[in-house]
Write a structure and sequence with these properties.
It is a single chain. The chain is α/β, with parallel strands linked by helices and 444 residues long. It has three domains: 88 residues, Rossmann fold; 209 residues, Mur-like, catalytic domain (UDP-N-acetylmuramoyl-L-alanine:D-glutamate ligase); 132 residues, Protein-Tyrosine Phosphatase, Chain A. It has 17 helices and 20 strands. Strands 7-8-6-9-10-11 form a six-stranded parallel sheet, with helices on one face. α1 runs parallel beside α7, α6 crosses α11 and α6 packs across α12. The protein is globular, with a radius of gyration of 22 Å.
């Protein structure tokens, strides 16, 4: 019997275990940490063997196939031993895709991928398509393939998930942008990270589509130096395009399939330049699937946006509080600051993934009146912005950060949580950070 070993007992691991069991594998789940109660219950209920707080190498190195959680880096000793034994290591995305004939739309990028994924899923649902939402978001892709058999899947894909694919293919791939992120996992080599993102198109052929940001330098450079078989579908807010999506007189104009689709920016429910691009990408994917104009327009008008992404929390004593905890890199924070049209108290900091803050200097100089640091090590932030902003205060938690920001802000101003960093020094996740921020704001 083929032995499937799964490293990591989280959403993707447990979903893969269910699909693996259904497909006749002998399944074993191994997690170095503690497995959450809700996942343990699923494993027990389905009589799937597992271990936690340990990796039993004798079992793991005897596998026919290994599914590795995207959070486990390749340089870990156990992964290196598996590679030495030539045991195939796949991602959940790769494993699950081999058991479905569904139409797959894969979405990756440093920023904007969650919004674009949710927006496109919203359009497809409104068009009454049988569609699943998975990948880096929602329920496990593998579990959905095992239990729900959707005709379409919209998958948000991280670079770590793409690193674990071999034959996986998206009929429509969307690359929202590429800016430096997660460089700690790519030996601080931006080109390696770019190559990882472009794995989304490596198995595409001439019947498939790659929708991409034509304004992004890293994407432009890769496409000049490398080949993809997919049909290229660009979008831009800087230049007019003969094919694809562009902006004219505050209106999105889309030219594909020999017809023109237009949508005024004022009717979009999500605001800001980055969301204009996310909308362009989602509209073009919907158009390639030949969905009705009316459905697309209505979906864009009533889409509610993403929690922890430029989320308006409250207005207290004339001060707006905005939760952008999902901004875990400099580029995401750049977008957020760019959207601010009032004097801003900026809450920033956390686990630095090799950040270069210099891109933010002009925006900070123009818009930020005070900086509140929310991280254990704030040296880089203080060094970068010390000469630009008069007030920089260090805090050790969301509640303290909010209280300090409240004192520093005045009527007509904004308090923006947009950390530009990962959250793991003080919080469980960016969601936990965002929720703690919102709780602190509401108890002011």
């Amino acid at each position: 019997m083929k032995k499937l070993v799964i490293l990591g007992g989280g959403e993707s691991g447990v979903g893969t275990a269910l699909l693996g069991k259904q497909k006749g594998y002998e399944v074993f789940v191994s997690d170095k940490g503690e497995i959450l109660k809700k996942y343990k219950e699923v494993l027990l209920h389905n009589k799937i063997d597992f271990e936690e707080k340990n990796h039993t190498e004798s079992i793991i190195l005897n596998a026919t196939l290994v599914m590795k959680s995207p959070g486990i880096p390749d340089h870990v000793a156990l992964v290196q031993k598996l590679k030495k034994k030539l045991i195939p290591i796949l991602s959940e995305i790769e494993f699950a895709s081999s058991y479905t004939n569904a139409n797959i739309i894969g979405i990756t990028g440093s920023n904007g991928k969650t919004t674009t994924t949710l927006l496109l899923h919203h359009i497809l649902k409104n068009a009454d398509l049988n569609v699943g939402l998975a990948g880096n978001i929602g329920h496990s892709f593998a579990q959905q393939v095992a239990e729900e058999s959707h005709e379409h899947y919209v998958l948000e894909l991280s670079s770590f998930q793409l690193d674990g694919i071999q034959n996986f293919k998206s009929h429509i791939a969307i690359l929202t942008n590429i800016t430096p992120d997660h460089l700690d996992r790519y030996e601080y080599d931006f080109d390696k990270y770019i190559a990882s993102k472009f794995r989304i198109t490596m198995n595409q052929d001439a019947t498939d589509y790659l929708i991409y940001d034509a304004d992004n330098a890293a994407i432009h450079k890769w496409l000049e130096e490398n080949k993809t078989k997919a049909r290229l579908v660009p979008f831009s807010i800087e230049k007019k395009l003969e094919y694809g999506a562009y902006l004219k007189d505050n209106t999105i104009i889309i030219k594909i399939n020999k017809e023109i689709f237009t949508m005024p920016l004022s009717t979009l429910s999500v605001k800001g330049k980055h969301n204009t691009k996310n909308a362009m990408a989602a509209i073009m994917a919907a158009k390639l699937l030949k969905l009705r104009k009316q459905t697309i327009k209505e979906s864009l008008e009533d889409f509610e946006g993403v929690e922890h992404r430029l989320e308006n929390v409250a207005k207290i004593k004339g001060v707006e509080y905005i939760n952008d905890s999902k901004a875990t890199n400099v580029n995401a924070t750049f977008y957020a600051l760019e959207c601010m049209d009032k004097s801003t108290v900026w809450i920033v900091g956390g686990v630095d993934k090799g950040n270069d803050y210099s891109d933010l200097l002009p925006l900070v100089r123009e818009k930020v009146k005070a900086i509140v640091c929310l991280g254990l090590d704030n040296v880089k932030i203080k060094n970068m912005f010390g000469n630009v902003v008069d007030v920089i205060v260090e805090t050790a938690g969301a509640e303290e950060a909010v209280k300090v920001s409240h004192k520093l802000s005045e009527r007509g101003e904004v308090v923006l949580l947009s950390p530009a960093c990962a959250s793991f020094d003080l919080f469980e996740s960016y969601e936990d950070r965002g929720r703690q921020f919102k709780r602190a704001v509401r108890s002011l």
